[in-house]
Amino acid sequence: MSDGPSLSDFMRHLQAILEESEGIDDRIERESRQLQIESAIQEAIIFGNRFRELMEHGIDPLHFVKPNDREDIPKQVSKIETLNVGQPHCKGCGNHLEKDLDFCASCGEKR
Questions:
Q1: Does the N-terminal or the C-terminal CB of the chain have fewer CB atoms within 10 Å?
Q2: Cα–Cα distance between 8 and 20 in angstroms, integer?
Q3: Closest Cα partner for 10 from 36, 35, 43, 33?
Q4: pLDDT in tens, the chain (111 residues)
């Protein structure tokens, strides 16, 4: 592994910050910060447990698997394409059809 801090060191750091957060005067800000830190501690515990579980089964949790050359890698889609999934499209030009119109606003073709 590396010579840097361990997961245990990070969790002790989070615990110290959680204790320091008691000094935040504003109640809402204090509770929000404590929730953030407690969530981070829980994620660190989950990560540590999962890491150990994989290692016990002989699986390197940090090994990244590359896709086979034979597998088709899906093309990346834009945010607009993602938002339009499931939306009706014009058969003529392919643009998004408005729900309240019975024709395409781009090319005029009827639905």
A1: N
A2: 18
A3: 43
A4: 567 899 999 999 999 999 999 999 999 999 999 999 999 999 999 999 999 998 898 888 887 767 676 667 777 777 776 666 667 778 888 777 777 888 888 888 887
Among all chains, which residue has been given the structure tokens 């989950």?
46
* CA angle, residues 61, 64, 69, in degrees to nearest 5: 150
∠ CA 44-45-48, nearest 5°, is 85
Q: Which two tokens stand for residue 75?
A: 């093309």
Which residues lie below 8 Å from residue 33, measured CB to CB, with a gap of 6+?
21, 24
- Structure token digits, residue 76: 């990346």
The closest of 111, 83, 85 to 97, measured between CA atoms, is 111
Assess contact for 86 and 79: CB atoms under 8 A: no
CA 21, chain centre distance (Å): 27
Q: Using an 8 Å Cβ cutoff, are 98 and 109 in contact?
A: no
Sole residue written with tokens 């090319």: 107
